[in-house]
Q: What sequence folds into this?
């Protein structure tokens, strides 16, 4: 239950919450972490399919649930892996479990504010689209700030050091993403080559 309580505390006392997560990192509840991540995914899907179409940048007809889930999961996991890798090399204090937990708990503002944004979208008119978009950007900025604060707190860093290591982590995220894309691209080419080779062999075996 305390791990779900941390979810609420993240909104109001993030520094204290991240300290508590660090203090209890050997007892991190995987179920609670998965529950928070599942809530974030559910809010993303709910937003795409229920927000007022005049305020949405994605058409319901063109929406892809897998891609929408990836929009939530991929950046968070990339950040957790990249930041942990960078800090492991640079003598950081956080564990991978702690890093993932803090990263996912940082989604708390998105989870709480999304239903509010959905409701507001059905009240606002098209003339207030810029203000609505600004509110969405503010929520994302809140999440990013929490990620930074959690990164700084979990590794015991000063602000200037945390800023530098954050930039390194962002670069690491880009490198990981590029590597994965290249691996998938190469894999697809290999599969295509094998299929074409098999087709040629089958043709000549007739």
A:
């Amino acid at each position: 239950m305390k791990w779900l309580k941390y979810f609420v505390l993240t909104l109001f006392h993030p520094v204290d919450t991240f300290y508590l997560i660090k203090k209890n990192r050997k007892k991190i509840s995987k179920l609670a972490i998965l529950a928070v991540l599942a809530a974030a995914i559910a809010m993303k899907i709910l937003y795409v399919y229920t927000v007022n179409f005049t305020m949405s940048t994605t058409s319901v007809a063109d929406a892809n649930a897998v891609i929408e889930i990836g929009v939530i999961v991929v950046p968070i996991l990339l950040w957790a892996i990249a930041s942990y890798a960078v800090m492991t090399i640079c003598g950081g204090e956080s564990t991978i479990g702690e890093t993932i937990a803090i990263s996912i708990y940082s989604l708390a503002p998105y989870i709480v504010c999304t239903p509010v944004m959905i409701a507001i979208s059905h009240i606002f008119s098209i003339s207030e689209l810029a203000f609505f978009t600004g509110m969405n950007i503010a929520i994302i900025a809140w999440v990013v700030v929490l990620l930074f604060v959690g990164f700084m707190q979990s590794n015991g860093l000063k602000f200037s050091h945390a800023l530098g290591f954050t930039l390194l982590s962002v670069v690491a995220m880009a490198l990981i993403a590029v590597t994965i894309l290249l691996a998938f691209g190469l894999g697809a080419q290999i599969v295509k080559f094998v299929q074409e080779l098999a087709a040629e062999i089958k043709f000549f075996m007739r």
